[in-house]
Design goal:
80% helix; 155 residues; mainly alpha
Length: 155
């Protein structure tokens, strides 16, 4: 029973996050818009307005940081789903070895390719794919498998 409930924890967290956002984001927005004026209320309107502009740029930058994080998480999610749905076919394309991390849930395609690359089990197509991913980020597949191994170690 505990294992079944554990599977629904992410759903509960999403529901909690949505309810919290509906309650607290409006209050935070009012605070963000008014705080610079309150902080410099004795310095004059022009100074307060200039400080407000600087404050808004800081807020926009922090929002952009959050959006970048969200985009990374969406890309990671798509990679995980891609490995589950496309991994077995990709395994047949990039290696002769069977029973790899390709096609398994909870690990990205990049990490699975990194594992195959580190064990020298990739064919020419697999090596080419790892090199292409390496152009996006230096040693991308190796870094992905190392990160996955660290996460698995501390689960």
């Amino acid at each position: 029973m505990k294992k079944v409930l554990k599977e629904f924890i992410p759903l509960g967290l999403v529901i909690f996050a949505v309810i919290s956002a509906v309650l607290f984001i409006p209050m935070g927005l009012i605070h963000i818009l008014g705080k610079p004026f309150y902080d410099v209320r004795k310095k004059g309107f022009l100074f307060a307005f200039g400080w407000w502009i600087i404050w808004m740029f800081r807020v926009i930058y922090q929002l952009w940081t959050s959006v970048k994080y969200l985009l990374f998480q969406v890309a990671y999610f798509i990679d995980l789903i891609g490995n589950v749905l496309f991994g077995e076919l990709l395994e047949d394309i990039v290696t002769a070895r069977e029973d790899t991390y390709l096609g398994k849930g909870g690990i990205t395609i990049s990490a699975a390719l990194g594992d195959l690359a580190m064990s020298y089990d990739l064919n020419k197509t697999g090596i080419w794919l790892v090199r292409i991913l390496g152009k996006v980020e230096n040693n991308h597949c190796q870094k992905a498998i190392e990160l996955w191994e660290i996460r698995e170690k501390y689960k």
